[in-house]
Amino acid sequence: MSVIQLGLVDTTGALDPEQVAAAAAALNIQVMRDLPQFWNLQATVRVLTNPKRIPSGVWPLRLVDTLPQGMGGVHLDRNNQPFAIVATAPEYGEWTIAASHEAIEMLIDPWGNRMQTARAIRIAGKGIRDGAGECGYLVEGCDPCEAPRYSYRIQGIPVSDFITPHYFDGMATPGTRYSFAGNITAPRRLLPGGYIAFVDFATAEWQRIEFFGARPQLRILGRFSGKSIRSWTDRKAAEAAAAQ
């Protein structure tokens, strides 16, 4: 199995180099120690000192000051290779959690099209319950548990919790971890601050359940068109939110 190389690079020139190095070390531990316990991949993270010189074969995690609308997350470059953009301004919260989030999602699903068929879910009051039939879930490693309150620390650096493949199991079983830090306690559940996207096979329409307020809400996104389901669902959800 080949080792995927990620590079954390400060494009702002304003961050403390020691903080960036400490973050890269924590992310490296996470992707080498924690992630492979559940996901079949091998990766490393290192600091890149020159944002204009990204070594061949390295997928960059670009640290920026602020994000243009809809530009956060993982994207594909002109050669169809993944890269991530992470905002570091204080109003965005702990940037190391966001960097961890994007690193994990880039590793689990580099091109934004990985899907898993599993039992459908529905909104029930202030939570999520199993529904009838099956749907196709977009495999996004951190979105269901992305809120900062669910992060954990590596060498003092906060990093994101992430789902395990058991997240898509048919039913809960004792002793099973559905997220690495144990915040998710049953398959296909959504924590406050998170979201999950899926396609209804009967209608071919993509939908997204978002838990950004007091209770989850469902968005109908429509039929997919494009190259990356992840980028498309993020854009459609942002457009819907802006139109409200």
The strands making up the biggest β-sheet line up spatially as 2-1-3-5-4
How much is the radius of gyration in Å? 18 Å
Helix content: 10-25%
The topology string of helices and strands comes to: EHEEEEHEEEEEEEH
- Largest β sheet strand count, sense and barrel closure: 5 strands, mixed
Q: What is the global morphology?
A: globular
Structural class: alpha/beta
Proportion of β residues? 25-35%
Total helix count? 3
Q: Which residues form runs of ≥5 with pLDDT under 50?
A: none
How many domains would you count in the coordinates?
Answer: 2
Averaged pLDDT, please?
95
Task: Please provide the count of β strands.
Answer: 12
How far do the termini sit from each other?
46 Å
Task: Give your account of this protein's structure.
The chain is globular. Helix 1 (about 15-35) runs parallel beside helix 2. The protein has 2 domains: about 5-110, Chitobiase, domain 2; about 115-244, no CATH class. It has 3 helices and 12 strands. With about 240 residues, the chain is α/β, with parallel strands linked by helices. Helix 1 links the parallel strand 1 and strand 2. The mean pLDDT is about 95.
